[in-house]
Amino acid sequence: MSTYVPTIEINKKQLKNLIYFIGKHEDLLAKYGAIKIKLNENWKLNLKKKVDIFSTNSVNKQLVKIPSKKFIYPVEEINSIEKPFQEKFCIQNENDFLNLLNSSKYQQLNISYIMDESFFLQKTSIDHFSVYHSIYESTLKFFQKDIQKQFHPYIRRTHKSPSIFPLNCAQQFFFTLDYHRQGENHHWYIIPSHQRCILQDLLSKQNQSNCLEHQQIFLHPLFFYENNIQYYRINQQENEFVILSSGTFYQSFTEN
């Protein structure tokens, strides 16, 4: 069985001191691997009026259902010559998505990444929150600029339904902040870092151990259940933040 990660409301003062706020909840982050943050005031975010995201193309990859790999869906490149036809599905909840996984041999990811881009303005303001303010307030400010540049924002875009983000790992020694700008609900599966050894051993038996941190597989929730791996869920809606603890494994999909 799994539960949802804690949802914490944050006020204007706490949001301005986000790094301190996260530090106060280190125990929750260590246990659950993530927390969800809701704004409890009409707090203004320092967002750009327009971001050019419509010219990006979906990554040319898909999930593949292989009978010999129970509840494990490898990610492979799509053959541009024999590109499989993808039906339209109505995904309104987790059951719809899992039924799709069970019934489809192939399922395109329908996602793209825009590196070095953000919905937030770099210029910070006293009355508006920007993710860049948190970067400047973190321990990164003590590093040289060439090291700071290695940690940059990016936009994850969905193209069709469902959009699927394969298994990935939050960077070691740093937390990850995810903001849901707009669109339908975003469903996450969170595997805390203290489950890493168990997960790695199980995937090694399936010759999939190299896929843990490279977005090369998607794991059905029944894989966690049958192997007694503790995992948690998040249902992220518009204007909500998700904070991932360092070393947390995560994968997700969106509704339509």
Task: Please explain how this structure is put together.
By secondary structure, this protein is an alpha+beta fold. The chain has one domain: Cupin (Jelly Rolls), CATH 2.60.120.650. Helices cover 22% and strands 27% of the residues. It has 8 helices and 15 strands. A 5-stranded mixed β-sheet has the order 1-13-11-15-9, with no helix packed on it. A 4-stranded mixed β-sheet has the order 2-3-14-10. The two termini are 26 Å apart. The mean pLDDT is 83. It comes from Adineta ricciae. Residues 5-46 form the JmjN domain. This is JmjN domain-containing protein.
Question: What are its keywords?
Answer:
single chain, 256 residues, alpha+beta, Jelly Rolls, 5-stranded mixed β-sheet, 4-stranded mixed β-sheet, 8 helices, globular
Q: Regions with pLDDT < 50 over 5+ consecutive residues?
A: none
The total domain count is 1
Tell me the CATH architecture: Sandwich
SS strand fraction: 25-35%
The CATH homologous superfamily corresponds to Cupin
Q: How many β-strand stretches?
A: 15
Give, in spatial order, the strands making up the sheet with the most strands: 1-13-11-15-9
CATH class: Mainly Beta
Do you know the CATH topology? Answer: Jelly Rolls
Shape: globular
- Provide the succession of SSEs: EEHHHEEEHEEHHEEEEHEHEEE
Largest sheet: 5 strands, mixed
User: Count of helices?
Assistant: 8
Distance between the termini: 26 Å
User: Into which percent range does the helicity of residues fall?
Assistant: 10-25%
Structural class determined from secondary elements: alpha+beta
Whole-number mean pLDDT: 83
Radius of gyration: 19 Å
InterPro entries: JmjC_dom, JmjN
Domain JmjN: 5-46
Protein name: JmjN domain-containing protein
Pfam family, one: JmjC
